[in-house]
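Handoff note, outgoing to incoming analyst
You'll be picking up this chain. Sequence as last confirmed:
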Amino acid sequence: MTSLDKPTSETDQPHRTDQQDADAKAVTEAALFEAFGGVRGMVETVLPGLLFVTIFTINKDLTASAFAALAVSVVLVVVRLLRKDTVKHAFSGVFGVAFGVLFAKMTGNAKDFYLPGMIYTLGLALAYLVTTLAGLPLIGLILGPVFKENLSWRTRNPGRKKAYAKASYAWGLILLAKCAILFPLYWWADTAQLGWVLVALKIPPFLLAVYLTWVFLAKAPPPIDVFAEMEAEEEAEKARKAEAEQSARAAEARPYDL
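Most recent structure output, in case you need it:
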C-alpha cells in the first residue's frame, strides 16, 4: 500500500486552530459557490419559471408563456458565452425549460410545463438517498473534483465521507419534502397556483441544503489534494531518476583500480 492509498482515521486528524477552522469554512464556502453557481446560478434557475407563471397569470396563453421562458433561458446562455463564463448551469436551465415546453405543448395542459422539473427533483432526491445508502454519497461525487480530492474521501478520509453522507441525506430529505408539497398541487391546484408555489420553493430549500452541506463539511477533516500528491510523487520520481543517472555517470567516470 502506497502513501497515496493509506487510509486515515478520524482520530489521526490533528487538532485544528481557530484560524484553520476559519480557512476551512472559507474554502468550503468558495467550493459550494462554484459547484452550485452562486447568486447568478439561482437567478438563472428562477427566472424562466417566474416569467412563465407571470405571463400565464396575466393572459392564460400557454404558447406565449412557454416560449418566453425558453427565450430568456437561451438569452442567459448567450450572455454567459459572450462573457466566456461557465455555461453548465444556464444550459441545464435551457434543457429543463425546453422539456417543460415540449410536455406542455404535447398535452395542451399548461401545468405540464412544470412536470419534467418535478420528476427530475424526485429522481434527484432518490439518487441522493440511494447513493448514500450504497456508501457512495452523491454530494461527494459532485464536490470531490471541486475540492481536488476526487474519490479519496471514500477510503482515506472517513470523517469527510461521513460529512458527505450527512449532506447527501439532507439534500435527499429536503427535496423529498419539496416533492411532497408540489405533486399534490399538480393534481388539484391550477397552473398559476402551482407555478407561484414552485417559484417560491425554488430558492429556500436549495439554500437550506447548501447551508447544511457547508456546516457538515466545514467541521469535517480537510480534503486530501490528490492532484498535489500525484505531482509530488512525479517530482520525487524525477529526482530519484536524476540521482540514479548522476550516480551512473559518476561510476563511469571513476578510474578503474589497477
